[in-house]
Amino acid sequence: MAHPQTDTPAREQIKRDEQAHKMPTRLDRAEGPFYPDDLLPRLQQTLALLADVQIRFEIERDFLEDWSGSAEVKDCLVAELNRCHTANRGRLASCLAQLQREARSSEPAPPKRTDH
Predict the structure, then answer these.
(1) Which domain holds residue 83?
(2) Cβ neighbours of residue 93 under 8 Å, at least 6 residues apart?
């Protein structure tokens, strides 16, 4: 008498791996954005830099909030930190906006519908 084979965790992982290999690639998906090879790394780098600037700002702000120095000096340091953060974030946001414009201009035109 044959027993139904139950999936072990290892077999389940193998099935998930097989399914992952069957997932469509970016080129197979018409709905996803397509970026030229030179543009994608620049987008990723800019987004990573934006995240890094944000994390560093939050760490430094938290440090200043806990700092036991004079309130006047603390206020000056926090104001300078905010100015620097705004300037750095603004420059990176401008770069990202330019990259997004490049991405939009490199997108292929949607296919034209023809009625027969």
Answers:
(1) 35-104
(2) 50
Token digits for 100? 């997004």
What is the amino acid identity at position 15? K
Does the pLDDT of residue 107 top 60, yes or no? yes
Whether 71 maps to a domain, the answer reads yes
Please give the pLDDT value at position 20: 54
> CB–CB of 50/93 below 8 Å?
yes
CB 64 within 8 A of CB 81: yes
Residue 95 has pLDDT above 60, yes or no: yes
| CA pair distance 116, 14, nearest whole angstrom | 48
Asked, for residue 98, whether it belongs to a domain, the answer is yes
Q: What is the overall mean pLDDT for the chain? A: 80
What pLDDT is recorded for position 106? 76
